[in-house]
Amino acid sequence: MSYETVIGLEIHAELSTKTKIFCNCSTEFGAKPNEHTCPICMGLPGTLPVLNEEVVHLAVKAGEALNCKINKLNKMDRKNYFYPDLPKAYQISQFDLPICGEGYVEIHTKDGMRKVRLNRIHIEEDAGKLVHMEYEPYSLIDYNRVGVPLIEIVSEPDMRSPEEAVEFMKTLRAILQYANISDCRMDQGSMRCDANISLREFGKEEYNTKVEIKNINSFKELQKALEKEEKRQKELYDFGEGFRIKQETRRWDAGKGKTVTMRTKEDANDYRYFPEPDIIPIVIKDELIKSVNEEMPELPVDRTKRFKEQYELTDKEIEILVEDKALSDYFEKVVALGAESKTTSNWMLGDMLRLMRETETDSKSIPVSPENMKELFDMIKGKVISNTAAKEVFEEMFKTSKEPKVIVEEKGLSQISDSSALEGMVKEVLQNNEKSVADYKAGKVQAIGYLVGQVMKASKGKANPPMVKEILEKELSKL
Question: Which pTM does this prediction carry?
Fold first, then answer.
């Protein structure tokens, strides 16, 4: 039987504020455990929350960037549940009156551009972090993340494959980064998602039972988790055991490569929502919406359009660059220094991305400065170094952040362009490769390629290839 996959995502993004949502504790990542805590975010008796105005500002900005309806009257609610990393035993969130209503995001699919509808965006506080000790019978808790402000972006079930879900999340990340709403550092947990997935027969209108997969924090793992859960549900339906798919929360076990049951899925009434009594309703004024739109920076869709008009790049090259704000910012810095856009793109999407993947380097931490990148291009164009040597220089630049001229000097990689020196190498190669010379004279013109390679080998890659070929042709014509 043929099934259609139905996917919706709930994406949590930490907002780029300096302090937490209800207190003055820092939101800085990487502090010692429990260093950024106070009686308010720890929920001690007698404390009162005070809403951070910047949280409201950034949430409205997210709504505008994601084509949402801004609810001018909204409120905070208490969501009651007990987890050890939530010291109050309730979370301050939003329920029936979220800050943003319906919106949409346009994504690339195999069938072209398509809209994925958004159900809502609401603000809430984050919980802490459990640290499970591998060889100890207990877990530790770091409360630094408690009270860090979040927006939760809830999509409608409009995605029809794991690939579309990943594309949606990538598109959303780019928008949030471009608008300076969140840094979306998935490696630091500042962006993560819960995925809801179900299957139904093609042509059917009603949805079947969905399963939620919790806390996925990378595009790669999102795709794997959805593919495995898709396969699990299909097998159950194929064996006539669809009734065994129950509404539940599962987690992705990356080590075992499968989803694992956590708990039966709660409904809204299980959380016993009620209005937060310590925070008055939030009123959004027209002036705030106007100022948010006036300060909105260039978003991915606008940058894509500008790149197509301004640079001689393919659609795929533009897509990869624009998807990552830091990467496209770096590209423009190099080009602004006078580098050719195509050359810059080729190096960035080739050697640079390869080294970034191998070393797990974030695009915000590229160790090669734009100035050094431009200098490397100048050295290639000026024939100071060969393309082969340039790759070696670039790898060293990436490892050490040294200037290219320093590396060239240290490694002795300057290209040999002295004609007399090259003539001596060419004559020696011709004397030692009589068969290739005979092949060339017999009409096998490809033999010259082998001879060029032998000269390059003799010069340890330093010879100027075009000059080598020119001198070879000249010497061979004499024979």
Answer: 0.85
